[in-house]
Specification:
This protein is an alpha+beta fold and 287 residues long. It has five helices and twelve strands. The strands form two sheets. It has a six-stranded mixed β-sheet with strand order 3-4-2-1-12-11.
Length: 287
């Protein structure tokens, strides 16, 4: 199974052109992906869409007819003129979906900086050879360390909670009921733009071991880059071609694998060449 994660910057390239079709073409050239996770997908925000208001989630669905597309809006609001605007994360998959969840992340006040609400979209799919697999994609706050730290802690808690439900599932209700059996699973990939380098305390926090009742031993999330490349420095994924936000290129985009998938991570790579966004896409292969 191949997954691509990419902060699309509202499908806006470094040339200023907003082109969802370029995002899709670049992703297809990178890999024959089963899952595509995109952050910063917009609808109704002309300031980030080059003056346009197009629903980018709908546009991406049209560009990916063989995939099902799921959009999670972290921001969903109306302006003074009554125009609706949405901004968030998207998962496109050709694997059978089993369950979709949208988790709003903590948003503690930090009045000294610009910020916005953040979300984690979690889609459980049926993956060949793996069974139920929970794909979690997110985009953490850039300007507020306080918010980013709280969001990283919540991501960790969400994964621990899911693992606990897999180990001790609820008593099932009858078929056809909302309480019918769910595809609870410890198999998970957590990916996205974390807006933190590998030296950050939040990066370490996400990978700290934990235990859950009903399971033996410790579990953890693993940085797929470290699993494949060991001590080799992360390939940068942000400010590679321009240094508008950071003084030098830095790795902000990661894929973390659950303990149950540690031995199944076969490859991970960063496309350093594209300028279709201000971030670089990351592709990981699980087998």
């Amino acid at each position: 199974m191949k997954l691509i994660t990419w902060n699309s910057q509202a499908c806006r390239g470094l040339d200023g052109s907003v082109r969802p079709e370029r995002i899709v073409a670049t992703a297809r050239a990178l890999a024959d992906f089963d899952v595509l996770c995109l952050q910063e997908i917009a609808a109704g925000y002309p300031g980030v869409q080059g003056g346009g208001r197009d629903d980018q989630a709908s546009a991406l669905q049209r560009l990916l007819p063989q995939y099902q597309v799921f959009f999670g809006a972290a921001v969903d609001e109306w302006d003074e003129a009554g125009q609706r605007s949405r901004f968030g994360n998207l998962i496109a998959t050709r694997l059978p979906p089993l369950q979709l969840q949208h988790h709003l992340l903590p948003y503690p006040p930090d009045p000294g900086v610009t910020s916005m609400p953040r979300i984690c979209t979690a889609l459980t799919v049926k993956a060949p050879g793996l069974g139920p697999l929970r794909i979690m994609t997110t985009h953490l706050e850039y300007y507020s360390h306080r918010q980013r730290a709280a969001q990283a802690q919540r991501l960790r808690e969400l994964h621990i909670e899911a693992c606990a439900l897999a180990a001790q599932p609820p008593r099932a209700d009858e078929p056809g009921s909302p309480s019918r059996p769910k595809p609870h699973t410890a198999n998970a990939l957590l990916c996205g733009d974390f807006n933190m380098p590998p030296t950050a305390s939040e990066y370490t926090l996400l990978q700290e071991p934990f235990t859950v009742p009903g399971s033996e031993g410790e579990q953890r999330l693993w940085d797929c880059w470290r699993l494949v490349h060991a001590a080799r420095a992360h390939a940068p994924t942000f400010c590679v071609h321009e240094q508008r936000y950071e003084p030098e290129p830095v790795a902000f985009d990661f894929v973390f694998a659950s303990d149950s998938l540690e031995a199944k991570v076969r490859a991970i790579a960063v496309d350093a060449a594209t300028t279709a966004s201000d971030h670089q896409p990351v592709v990981v292969e699980i087998a």
